[in-house]
Queue: 2 jobs
Job 1
Amino acid sequence: MSVVSASPFLSQDLESPARQRRHTLPASEFRPLNPQDAISVFEIEKEAFISVSGECPLHLDEVRHFLTLCPELSLGWFELGRLVAFIIGSLWDEDRLTTDALTLHKPHGHTVHIHVLAVHRTFRQQGKGSILIWRYLQYLRCLPYVRRAVLMCEDILVPFYKKSGFKVVGPCAITVAHLTFTEMQFAIRGHAYMRRNSQF
Ligand SMILES: CC(C)(COP(=O)(O)OP(=O)(O)OC[C@H]1O[C@@H](n2cnc3c(N)ncnc32)[C@H](O)[C@@H]1OP(=O)(O)O)[C@@H](O)C(=O)NCCC(=O)NCCS
């Protein structure tokens, strides 16, 4: 089964014959990303991160890398065919994030590492980031091998992720240039496992 046909992101309307006959772009569409989306992803990243701090979570080749290896762990929000927000994840197989997690996809891991969530500048503060992460977490519940989602973020964004149900794990071991991060996690399943490994 292809990634797209297995995806719960496509509404029935998009798959109906009536929809297939129509040639206009859908007003709003959620779907996994593919390597052809990498440039649109990177355009948003450049504005969101590089223009602010000179760094970004994933460079263009890394975006292509993850969208080739594990497109099913990404999610894009398109409006009239234009990418307005996205998430890129990969699998990780250790309790805590280390620098290897920034570049590796561990196919046998049970943890989804969310590398980046970003909303196009003109669409921020409209609830899109919260909606996208909610849909993504709902989707992860459909993947039997996923136990939890983890991410690292700057302290200022901890309240944003807490509102989406993430809990603080502790200071992240990874630093990028002068930036430090907090590691956060969201339990997908296996609550006993989560309790054993959570310090907070
Ligand atoms: C962070 C981001 C994804 C949030 O998406 P969004 O669609 O603007 O967020 P929502 O409209 O769903 O939620 C807005 C809430 O997030 C908080 N928030 C958003 N960006 C924030 C920021 N840079 N600093 C602090 N809080 C922020 C707001 O305070 C707001 O909270 P409120 O509802 O209590 O006012 C978006 O601002 C973005 O893409 N930023 C640049 C990239 C980035 O920093 N990504 C996160 C990497 S870990």
Job 2
Amino acid sequence: MQIATTNAELRDITKMERIGAHSHIRGLGLDDRLEPRANAQGMVGQAKARKAAGMILKMVQEGRIAGRAMLFAGPPSTGKTAIAMGMAQTLGSDVPFTMIAASEVFSLSMSKTEALTQAFRRSIGVRIREETEIIEGEVVEIQIDRSLTGATKTGKLTIKTTDMETIYDLGTKMIDALSKEKVLAGDIITIDKTSGKVTKLGRSFARSRDYDAMGADTKFVQCPEGEIQKRKEIVHTVTLHEIDVINSRTQGFLALFAGDTGEIKPELRNQINTKVAEWREEGKAEIVPGVLFIDEVHMLDIECFSFLNRALENELAPLVIMASNRGMARIRGTRFRSPHGLPIDLLDRVLIVSTKPYTEEDVQQIIQIRCQEEDVTLAPDAQSVLTSMALQTTLRYALNLISCAQIIARKRKADKVEVEDLRRAYTYFMDEKRSVQWLKEQQGTLVFEEIGAGDEEEGDGGVGKGKAKGTEQSKVDGDEAMDY
Ligand SMILES: Nc1ncnc2c1ncn2[C@@H]1O[C@H](COP(=O)(O)OP(=O)(O)OP(=O)(O)O)[C@@H](O)[C@H]1O
Ligand SMILES: [Mg+2]
């Protein structure tokens, strides 16, 4: 069977960035000896956990370990998710990093184990070496003839190296590719013969006096020597999941964009595994074990946990990182309680790293970093007020107030946020403690406040179905989330 690993159209996706909760995190902020710097790459404090994360990353980068798991455990807003984001940034661009929230596994379109399998395979890269034929040279002339209606185009491309010159006939597709890259005479280009992809390497030195065809950032390169047609080795990394989807006949590669991949047949996966193993033996491919991060892992249920136990022992397993803010909690789908809501046999296989609440100094620095990220100027005394608010309420609440206070400051046409603006924001938005207090004061006026006596008795944990799900959720959140 022929197994495809690329699709030219997969590459042209651009990303848009907004300021998110973790957009200030640019890495783990470690030095070469993996010692955490006090304040670097957007990371502050939490030294032990960052160092532990760095050590694990080192192992991943050396590609030596597979099938290990670690767990970040600690109270809410102590940087578990932030550290995982930092790890993702530190990994090279071709090491896959997949991030899921445990509740994503419970979807209607596929089974829990299929969802987990896909997440696992998304986190395993295959680095493939291939020889392709390319055309490389300096464009001498492009000539395009349009038919009268404009529907079809034909043309000729003259291309040269220092040693030879050749004329190629162009079809509509090639003409479109060339005009998309804005290729002009005097550009040095390569054309991949199998995919037809055109890449512009720069402008020829010989043309450096042609000012009209240049921008400020024009790159000049030498006209290539030798043959126009060459064989070139290219290396590209795809994930096992991408190979699965591209080769699954019912889905096709378009499903990769829609994210709606449905279930993939086990036979196909087996075929792909065999093929990849063959490639490895022939030296054509290497496995790049990546990282799978499962946030809020206590939301998985017992079936998922036992799947994880088994999947971690597979040869093609990534490094699995989990995070949980639960203390002793009920394992979803059972009547048993266990640390972090994870069964003991799984806990036994993971390295546990705990994150601790931040000191005042750390909080102050995190606030400063966030202000820079959100482009907000805080007056010095507003900064200390916000820090003490963070210590009394939560770090997240304080971080959320920054942008609210800025809007209030802007309304009075000030460009600095003062204590007064923070105070107003504080009165507009409640933190969790005040909200609970308010609920108590409002007793009886809100709908559905109490869980009745009858609801307290649960079934044996029918996870994911109607009523059972609702009651289970409220019970766990209600009396067990606060264990820390
Ligand atoms: N060490 C840190 N340096 C800089 N920013 C941090 C640090 N730790 C946390 N933050 C920021 O504080 C906020 C809360 O942290 P985060 O979301 O990582 O908490 P968490 O431990 O995942 O909490 P939860 O258990 O509620 O999911 C985020 O905006 C995060 O980017
Ligand atoms: Mg989190």
